[in-house]
Every structure is written in structure tokens, then in C-alpha cells.
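Follow-up to my post from last week.
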Amino acid sequence: MSTQAEVEALLAQHGNGAGWVPLARAITKIENNPPWDIALPVPTRPVHTIGITGPPGVGKSTLTGRLIEAYATAGARVAVLAIDPSSPITGGAVLGDRLRMETYLMGRNDVFVRSLASRGSHGAIASSTRNVARLLELSDSFDVILIETVGAGQTEVAIAELADTIALVTVPGLGDAVQAIKAGLMEIADLIVVNMADRPGVPETLRHFRLTLGREVPVLQTVATEGTGVEKLRDELDKRWAALGQNGALQSVRTRKRAREAALTAEAWTRALADELVDEHDDLHTAVKRILEEAARRWSA
Amino acid sequence: MPQNAIKVVVAKPGLDGHDRGAKVVARALRDAGMEVVYTGIYQTPESILRAVLQEDAAVLGLSSLSGAHMEYAMELCELLRENGREDLLFLVGGTIPEDDAAQLKKFGVSEVFGPGTRTDEIIDYINEHVAVAS
Amino acid sequence: MERVVADEVLDEERIKKWRDGRLAKDYERIPPRQEQFTTLSGIPVGDIYTPEDVKHVDPAADIGLPGEYPFTRGPHASMYRGRPWTIRQVAGFGQAEDTNGRYKFLLAHGETGLSTDFDLPTLLGHDSDHPVYGREVGKIGVAVDTVVDAHVLFDGIPLEEVSTSLTINASAAVALAMYLIVGDERGIPGSKLTGTTQNDILKEYTAQNEFIFPPLQASQLVVDTMEYGAEVMPRFNPLNACGYHIRDAGATAVEEVGLTLSAALCYLELAQQRGIEPDRLAPRVSFFWNVHNNFLEEVAKLRAARRLWARLTRHRLGCTDPRSWLMRAHCQTSGVSLTAQQPLNNVARTAMQALAAVLGGTQSLHTNSLDEAFAIPSEEAIKVAVRTQQLILHETGAADVVDPLGGSYYVESLTTQIEEEASELIRRIDEMGGMIGAIENGYANQLIADSAWEQQLALEKNERITVGVNDFVDDDNSLAGIELFRLDPGVGERQRARLAEVKRSREERRVADALRALEVAAHDLHRNRMPFIEEAVRARATVGEICNVLRSVWGEYQPSTVF
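User reply:
Got it. Predicted complex:
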């Protein structure tokens, strides 16, 4: 059975009331196979997929935990994908986000949390993560999907930008945390969350973002450890989802992002091919020639 | 980068706070290329089950140094059976006397690792006994 | 006899000559056993130590005399020539009467002070009828729900004569009140009670994980107990600043000293901010150290800790009372060093660690039992542990001279080095805002986790040998016929029944009023909560009820996520 078929079968099992196990298994299948082996249908009932990202140490997992609580209390069924980097040397990973969210999950059997290690190239993980989110949409078991990543590197940007809404989390002050964001995340953020807003430096930070991003990008304040501002964040996210629901806005956002996803997948495919074929003795001309020939051969097969 | 990796949940049930061993094992498993979800301390059997099911873990490592290992491990064996995950490689580590270890294995625990276990023993055991998912 | 005069002066040049000549020749014949010799803190150990190595150590200012600042040689002048250290074996399991029985056994066998271990629900502010944690009742310590249990625990024990150490932290304030009230209800005034509550909450966040509330609120509660103790139980030590757990969690000897003294400073400085002079509280701060495997390092560590604390209290806190400078310590042999393999070896390990504690000048000592790697000690094993201490006292002569290793070139050199490195660690922690800052930013946890990892690596790479585990291995795991202790499975139910009875017969109105008053007081971090806790305990409120009130006001601390 192809990966595609296996995933569909597991999804069906879950749909028939078999619980988390087949759904989790299906996610594993997506994780363990290249994104170009899977082509999930477009969900007929789209679910708000929210990317939560930002530099380390800003309290993202705590904030995500609180947000889960806020959504679940309002009756929404929540799914969370928490992505942590794999060690480039050993290939292993310690997936620590679940731990940080767990206090807010205690006793909640209705929230689905899955930790994913960012294996492979940034293009591959971004596409795979999108596929996992798509799978969750197709399952019809969730009303909101949160994707949490750490950092501002290529991988995190790639994963985040495929979500419908991207929330960038930072802390007050104009230090490293804020400077780190400039590397690519600023441009794609749909809203900014200044967490730990009980610390000094909030007014300057708000002004900084207003100057850099303009007034269209909402900037919110939270104190995740106390839960302050989280309901407002949820409401702002819901407002944005409602707005996307008007006049085909979601359609156009998703189409644009699907194009981006396709580019990332293509890049990953080519990269995998290059890793496979290119030899340390090859010069550029030889390398490209070999890739093009093999690519053509495989694609027509 | 390998496509597959062995997913392990390392958990500490109940009120026992001795996490030196659990953390050392988590780190060692990561260095051996596995993906480790460490649930932290103060977990209940339900929260551990939920982690195992949602993470589609191949291995569960339960760490207990407070004498309540029998109750927690046995309850988890039951829950895993009820939820169709008897295939899980269920390992228990900590201050477990030999008699208890034998009983645990009869009940469904795959292996018990007592004090002084080297991390490479655990890693080898997992590599030998886990059928890596594809 | 004629005095022999040496041919050459024993100076740096002469020693170098010896090293490059005679020593090098020895190594040519017989290479050194290891490439590098280090203590467990990673401090390099040289081949020989000479007067050159202690040139910078001042015999008057740094070494001094016992009973005098900076107390390097001991807190008291006569030390064990007068009063031996207290043999204080921790005991606790099942219900209060079970532990009471173990107390009497130990006292009959020569123990001279009591020490109590509580079960996890009690330690973490839960009652025995907790729907989830009830299964842990009585397993690793005694179950105490109300002061009624405390009465049973100390039944038949003359509290005005015997000192008790209560090994409890997050809920220590409740235990302290219980001890006072048990005495009071028996007609023994607080001023006659002696002993300790461990009550060092800061080490819980980094090492033992037995916390409830967030660090700041919990530390303020510690200050409450210290202030209260100074007033109503002036001979009792409300705080026992601990290195033991930090060490067993993986820290090095240097980290053990640095982190523990930082915590002790934190409480005293918080008190200072509340207008309480350190001199009022410092004389009743006691310490609890680990005694681990590297014999000489442990001796040096205890001496270094004493000297560093004396200097910190005098110069940093500005204490003028010499009793504030004086460190009194309890030691326990390292639990984590015990092996399940060839458990009889543990008797030898414990004996050597205990000897280090004595040569280091401890005031009280717990020796681990050989079966403690597996279970609560059996009677046979705990007896051997007690005898070990009696052997040291009566058979080895080690207790007949005060600080016999003082003046040893190696020990003095190492004492100074540990003091310097620990001092440096304290300075780094200061930069983070003190111990609470070092907890909140994860620094302390990461430090300990990294040391634990390093030790595991050294073990697995066979860079360090643990006899019976990575060398001299065989199949012998026998306990020489010692039967492991098994807890009676009926304990939980019996305790729940007793708790139900207490709840039935107490005055509910009084309990409710007391808890409400405590809740109000809890909002003011500079107000002493102890009188309110005392009233609640008198009314027979439970540990869980009291802690739940505090939880509702202060919240619960989320465990560290550091690796």
C-alpha cells in the first residue's frame, strides 16, 4: 500500500470513532515519508491554522498552553503541533514543548498535542508539517490548529509562513529577542504578541513595532504565566478568521500559501536528489547536469 | 538526516520528584538519535497514556523511585491494553526490587532497569526490540 | 637524639628537581594509573603536596583554631573529645505508630537524635484521602495529616530531652507548628524544644522537586518560620540549608557548597529586607551536607564551607554575633553512591563516607543502610549503619583529636581551592539576582543537570570506576539474607479512616475561621503567617487544607523543564 493509501485508511479509521491511535499513526506516516509521496485532498471544512513562533525564551509554550485553555474553555476542539529542532549530529531530539504545556492540559482529554522533530531539510519539514495540519483538518475533529515553532531560522520561517495566521511572540525591550525577529519573521507576521508584558519596556516596544510594521498589524500584550491578555488574543485570532471567511479571502490566502508550499516541496525534492547524486569530486557543471538528467528520468517514470 | 526515528516518551508518575535518572536517560536517547518526549514529573496514568497515544510513541520509559511503581505501572498496562497499544515497548526504571520486576514483566512490562543501569544498555535494548515504523 | 639537618632546603626548586627526577623515574617504571587524577568536582589532584602548596594559606587567618572564627577547624573548641556527633538516622514509613516503633528501636540501639521522613503526600501538602495521590500514602515516609498523627509519632518520646529533625520542606511551616503544639499540649514549653525543620525550599526547585508554591512566596514563608522560631522555639533550628540533595542530583562538591550558601544568604537577605536583623536568625541556621566518595575532598569541603560561611555572615551580612558566623552541620552519606549490585559493598562505602564526615567535623550524622538502594531500610541494615558510627567513635581514634587532618598540605590546599571556587559561583549567582534569579532563569538547574550528565559519561566511558558496576562485576546481588522492607498494604486505608475520624470529631467552625484568617494573611508577603498556621493546626486542620489555602493565594510552581 502506498503511503497515501495508508494515511487515508488510518484517517478513515479515526473517522469511524477509533480515537487518537490511528490519527497519531497517520501523522507518523507523514513524518516518516517525504512530502512528495503524499497528496491530501483540499479540506472542505477549513480549520483555522495558526502559527505561533518567535525567539526562544519568550514564553511561547506557556502562552500556547494558555491559548489552548482559552479555546477549550470556549468549547473549541484544539490540536497542537509543537516543533523542536533535531540535532544535526545525532539526528535525535528532546521534544520539550509538551512538558511546558502540560499543566494547562491536565485532565483535558479533548486536546490533541503532537510533538514533531524538524527532521530533514527546512523545505521538507515545512511541507510535512503543513500536511499534518491538513490531516487534522480533514479529520473533522478540531476547530482550531496551533503550530508552535521556536526561533527565527529558515526552518521556523518556512513552517510558520504556511499557516493561515502567523502570530509572532516576543518580549518587551529592544534587546536580542526583538532584534532576532528581523531575520524574516517580521514580514510574515499577521499579529505580534508582546508576552511578559508586566516587565519594563512595553511602550518602547509597541512604538518600535508600530514604526516598523505600520498600524495594520495588531500588537497585543500578554502575561502568559498569569493568563492576562490571552482571551483578548483568542478573540483577535477569531476576528481574523471571521474576516478571512469573507469574500473568498481565505481562498486567496491559501492559494498563495499552497504555491509557496509547492515551491518548498520542489526545493526539498531537488535537494534530496542533490544529496543523493552529487559527489565531492563533482564540479558545478557536472553536478547540475547529473541532477537534471536524473530528475527528468524520474519524473517521467 | 534519517527519515525515521524511534519516538520515546519518558515519564514520571505521581509525586516522585527524583528526575536525575530520567533526564540523563532522555539526553542519552537523544544522543543515540531518538526523539524523546519527556513529560516531566507529577504525571498521572491518564496524562502519560495521552502522551503515548498522541505522540504515537514506540517506547514508554517510566521512572519511579518512590515505591509506587507497581500501582502506576500496572494501571498503565491496563490502559495501554484498553487503548490498543499493547505493542508498546514498556520499560520501567528506578529502585525496583527483583521480585517486583518479575511481577511487572508478567503483567505486561517489557523490561525493568534497576539502579546502575548504563544508558547504552537501554539504547541497545530499544534498538533491538523496537520495530521502527515506516 | 641529634637533630638531623637536611642537605638542601625544601623549596620550589628542590621539589621540581624531585618531580623531574625521582618521580619521573618511578613513572617510567610504573606509569600512572590514570592519565589525569581529579576529585569528583574535577579539581586536578597532584601527586604530592608540600609546604609550597600552602604558602598562600595563612595559619592564623585561614586555619585558626577550633571554636574560633573562621571555624575552619571546627565550630567548637573541644569537638568530639567532649560531645560526640549525634547519631541521627532518618526514619519514616507507614503510619505514625509504625515510625514511632522505629524511633524506639533506634534509640534503644544507641541513636542520640531523631530524624523523620514524611510521605510524598504530606511533603507536598496533600492529605491521605487525596483521590489521586492517596496511593502513595506511607510509602517513602510517615503519613501525617493532622497534629493528631504528630502526637502518635512522638508518643513516649521525651521531647524536652531528644532533638528531632523534621525532613520536610514545602509544608515545613505546618510541621513546625505541629511540633510546637505537640510539645505544648504535653506541657513542654517551646523554649525546651530542640531540633530542626529542613525547610530549605530553594533547593527543591533545583534538586529534589518537592515544592508547591513559587520561589519568592515560598521563601518568604521560610523567613516567617525563622522569625517565629527565634521567638517561640529559640533552641530550635527552623532552617537546615541543604547541599545533600543538590549533590545527589549530580552537582559537584564545589557546586554543592556554592548553591547551598547562596540559598542560605537568600533567606537571610529577604529577612533583612523585612527589617529582621541577620544576627537574630543566623545563629539558628544549620546546614546539611552530603558526604560522598572522594574522601579527602569531602573533608576539605566541610572545612571550606564552614570558613566561607563564617566570612559571608561576618562581612557580607554584617553579623556581629559570633554564633551567627558558626556553621553547625548534619551530614548524610551519599544515597546515590550506593549500588544495587553487590549491596554488601555499600557498608564499606558508607563507613568511609562517614569517616570523612567525622574528620570534617560534622555535628550530627546519618549513615545509609546497605539496602537503601531498594527500599526503606530493614532493621538489620539500619543497625549496621548505627554500629558503623559507634565503631568510628570508639574504635578508630578519629574522634580523639580535633581536626586531625588540619595542616595537611593537601587538605589545606584543597580547602582553600573549594572555598575560592564556591565563592566564585556565589558571585555569579549574585549577578543573576541571587538564588531565586538563578532558579527562574534555569541556571542552577542546568548546572546540576550538566554535572549529572558529565558523571554519567565518565561512568559509562569507564573513566571512573564504580566497584561492582563497571568493574569487578559479578552476578552477586545478594543482600546476605537481609529481607527487604515491605510496607503493609493496609496502611493507606487505616490512615484514611483515622483522618475521617479526626474530621468528624473536630470543631469545623474553628477550622474554617482559622483557614479564612490564614488566607487573608497570605496576601501580605511581609506578614508572618505562622501564628495563623499555628491556630489552624491547633484546630486540627489538615496539611492539605492549610496548603490548599496557600495554593489558592500563591499559585503552584511549574516544574523546571531544563535538561
